[in-house]
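Entry 14. Structure prediction run on the chain below.
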Amino acid sequence: LPKTSQYSSRLRIIFDDWPSEDKTMSACINLEGNFTVDSPNVKYTPTEIISDYTYNTTLVEGNNVRPVSTKMQFKTERKVGKTGVMLVGLGGNNGCTCVAGAIANRLGMTWDTKEGEQSSNYWGSVMLASTVKLGNDPGGNSVYTPMSNMLPMVNPNEIEWGGWDISSMNLGDAMKRSKVLDVDLQKKLYSHLQQIKPLPSMYFPDFIAANQAERADNVLSGSKQEQTDEVRKNIRDFKKEHALDKVIVLWTANTERFAAVEEGINDTSDNLLAAIRRDEAEISASTCFAVASLQEGCTFINGSPQNTFVPGVIELAKQRQVFIAGDDFKSGQTKMKSVLVDFLVSAGIKPVAIVSYNHLGNNDGKNLSAPSQFRSKEISKSNVVDDMVASNKILFEEDEHPDHCVVIKYVPYVADSKRAMDEYTSEIFMGGKNTIVMHNTCEDSLLATPLIYDLVILGELCERIAVKKEGTDEWESFHPVLSLLSYMLKAPLVPNGAPVANALFAQRCAIINVMRACLGLEPDNHMTLEHRFESFLSEQAATLQKNKKRRIV
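Output returned:
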């Protein structure tokens, strides 16, 4: 299909000349060109896409079940402003790999390995390397398009990258230290990364493992208020230096211990800001970064498991109407768990014991070898099955949960190549038992880095989406607690009173269907009635016989 200028031309595809001898329906067709929706429910202007949408839900009150429809409009700004991303932990394995990956893709780098030549890609990114079903062609074949093709989105190749780290090492040497990328690729990237040096970062030793002290040669000084002010200045300077329209701040630094939530300290926004001014000990570095980001109007995303978003931060985000999202990248073992437990429970199989063991040798593993930091990770990894278990009271009694054990060990030799071993024991038909054992070798940072791209891309897109309910005049943005990013996170933060969804495919469907709503399209479903009734199938067969040409108008 020919490329058109982005979202500027209508692309209508008429499928003709489909081989009549091809009796197979439901083939998959990929639509890579830009498209517009031909519908009275959507209007394209030079600056916006505005859609009329009916949100259909089902309300259950006791034994009474009734459908509910809410009419609304979605508005999506079409211009993707120049975006900068500042990573806290820029010199860590994730940080330097993230920047290296963006540079390698921008320059179209290739490199040699013992398996042969490799090319830069964004595999592992749901936003950049997965497709979504757009609809069917006249013959009933499924048409898929890249998820990044659904709406205008920021491209990581065009992002300005920067940030902070407690280590002063330039990113070229940090890349070598991390031992994540192939050596030939490291050699090609080194001159580009050597020029990038992290800004000094906050270092509060009480919150991270003592074994991190040897890296801490690039730290801010002064009170917590002075350090927070300096971070705010860094954001403003970065934005001005690169002529950016917006900045997103993302924490990919060390896991901190949990902060105690205390009345008068971090329970409200006013108390939190006052506590930072008083230099209170129980205010973590990640919380100070979040406060600085919110005060500068920048979305803040937490990729680690600690409770960065104490009540005072959440209240500040609501007051400022700035997005926050977290917690903890969901990349390997936990992502598999959110799929497998969903499958078991949905299949009517009762998981009764889940034992998860990990060992890894990168700096994340070193930091997690300290008990307080491990406890933060254990909490985020353990809660992932709760909503799936709660959904099935045929299998589980009230407050009944599977036995769930999580173990993490530090083994320096394996470096970034994390090993994850899981055992799922379930009860099946008539008292039977079923055990599934899984071994997963994860290249930790190569799984986590695409999540950084995804969080940034989706977070930036959400900044350009607004809704207006029928009968109101004001456009409304997403809630400041941006739960739509849950797909990428182990312990999703949700607005107060909202349910937590951990099932992976439900999280992905939420992203896709919001984008479809922005285009005035109904949610995708898997009824596929067109393939289940003779009348539909006959119509499709007639269409295939009738069309003799395939042309593009």
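The first strand starts at residue 13 and ends at 14.
Filed with the rest of this week's runs.
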